[in-house]
């Protein structure tokens, strides 16, 4: 029965831990509209290296030149960390995409003068744009200041001046603060001068940020920096949870109201037309009515599935093959006339939501429904792309996912004029993203549907 399919698949998972992962951070960097000035706060060198590596990798992948000012890590360590994150360091360095310098040397070149340093950054931006880059991303380790006679206020003055200037520059900066070396007063001042914060692998909105003008005009502020960081992290986690809940509830509510109303109107019209079982075409009309009723039941069951899993997400590192086999089996049960081909090595480890087979099954079912042929077919290709990810491509002899559906799924909300037919694509999107994966729908050619999953937790 239709209802049994989703009743059996519902799991009661434990709530996601608040602590993030570098994979989650990469996903946030991919999706976020980043401000020009961020700060990372860390206690362990490994955390700093992974966060900085994710920042640099994202910068390079989005067409920017990246300048890395090293101090606590020497330049060879920075290059080694980037290689572990699958950055082609030698090629990037040779091409000028990546520049790794000593932070002390760079600041000394500017005579430790904030105005001079900003002039150098402006010049770097101008040159980079002329050479075809979208802009310049800068990652700086702030421990260099402990090797000088400068006070931290000198650095804060630069932070405020940078904030006042950077809206006019194609530049994004990540300042890195070691919480074991900077005292509460310094950390608090850093919080006031950075619009977004990366803390415990989470990209946080910073409620303590003030504009450069406000920073210079106010003399006293709270200095319990550790408490400020924890509160900010908790607020960000709660806000993200609420936003996901609201998005999913909004989509489910609209689909239930729109689709169930339409299907019931069809059923009502059919039944009203049947004066008796002898009416011409009665059997065909009843079959149509039953089809619409089954659609209603399936939508209701999917909505119930979403409701039960909406606030929980359990990730695991597991083998992809069982998920593929389960999804293929379900597709063959639904369409026994279909030809389904799996290519590539699916015996690989991936990080994903434990409900990934449901997501994959929804996408296979969608691909089969898009075809008008009596014997529909599809091909599922598994490959590495890039080495840190596993790519799953679904190709079929039919039209791509409609632009309307792509736009709705990308925007994350539905309207009366723009909406998906059912919950299937939404369900797949939410499950894939719960595991920090990507779901894409290329506009033309093969494949029509693409999923990317990470290979490991970092």
TrEMBL record:
Gene3D superfamilies tied to this protein: Histidine kinase-like ATPase, C-terminal domain (3.30.565.10)
Keywords tagged on the record: ATP-binding, Kinase, Nucleotide-binding, Transferase
Annotated MEDS domain residues: 36-194
Taxonomic lineage of the native organism: Archaea, Methanobacteriati, Methanobacteriota, Stenosarchaea group, Halobacteria
Protein name: histidine kinase
One matching Pfam family: MEDS
Catalyzed reactions per annotation: ATP + protein L-histidine = ADP + protein N-phospho-L-histidine
GO molecular function: ATP binding; protein histidine kinase activity
The protein's Enzyme Commission number: 2.7.13.3
């Amino acid at each position: 029965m239709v209802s049994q399919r989703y009743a059996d698949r519902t799991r009661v998972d434990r709530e996601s831990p608040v602590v993030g992962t570098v994979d989650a951070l990469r996903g946030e960097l991919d999706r976020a509209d980043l401000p020009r000035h961020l700060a990372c706060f860390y206690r362990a060198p490994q955390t700093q290296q992974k966060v900085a590596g994710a920042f640099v990798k994202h910068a390079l992948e989005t067409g920017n030149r990246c300048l890395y000012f090293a101090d606590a890590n020497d330049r060879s360590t920075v290059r080694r960390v980037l290689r572990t994150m699958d950055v082609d360091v030698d090629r990037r360095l040779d091409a000028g995409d990546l520049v790794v310098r000593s932070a002390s040397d760079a600041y000394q070149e500017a005579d430790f003068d904030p105005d001079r340093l900003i002039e150098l950054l402006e010049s770097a931006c101008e040159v980079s744009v002329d050479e075809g880059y979208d802009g310049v991303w800068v990652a700086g380790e702030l421990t260099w200041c402990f090797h000088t006679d400068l006070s931290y206020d000198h650095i804060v003055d630069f932070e405020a001046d940078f904030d006042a200037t950077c809206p006019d520059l194609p530049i994004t900066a990540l300042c890195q603060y070691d919480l074991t070396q900077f005292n509460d007063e310094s950390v608090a001042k850093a919080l006031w001068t950075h619009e977004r914060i990366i803390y415990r692998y989470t990209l946080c909105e910073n409620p303590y940020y003030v504009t450069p003008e406000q920073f210079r005009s106010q003399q006293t502020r709270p200095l319990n920096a550790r408490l400020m960081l924890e509160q900010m992290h908790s607020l960000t986690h709660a806000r993200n949870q609420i936003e996901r809940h609201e998005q999913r509830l909004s989509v489910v509510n609209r689909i239930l109201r729109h689709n169930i109303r339409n299907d019931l109107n069809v059923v009502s019209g059919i039944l009203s037309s049947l004066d008796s079982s002898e009416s011409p075409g009665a059997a065909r009309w009843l079959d149509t009515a039953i089809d619409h009723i089954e659609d209603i039941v399936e939508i209701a069951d999917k909505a119930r599935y979403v409701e039960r899993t909406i606030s929980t997400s359990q990730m695991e590192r597991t083998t992809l093959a069982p998920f593929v086999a389960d999804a293929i089996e379900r597709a063959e049960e639904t369409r026994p006339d279909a030809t389904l081909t799996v290519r590539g090595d699916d015996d690989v480890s991936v990080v994903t939501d434990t409900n990934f087979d449901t997501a994959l099954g929804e996408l296979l079912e969608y691909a089969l429904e898009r075809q008008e042929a009596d014997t529909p077919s599809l091909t599922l290709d598994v490959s590495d792309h890039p080495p840190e990810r596993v790519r799953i491509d679904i190709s079929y002899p039919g039209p791509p996912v409609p632009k309307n559906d792509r736009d709705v799924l990308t925007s994350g909300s539905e309207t009366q004029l723009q909406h998906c037919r059912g919950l299937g694509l939404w369900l797949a999107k939410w499950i894939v993203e719960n595991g920090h994966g990507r779901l894409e729908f290329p506009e033309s050619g093969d494949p029509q549907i693409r999923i990317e999953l990470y290979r490991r937790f970092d």
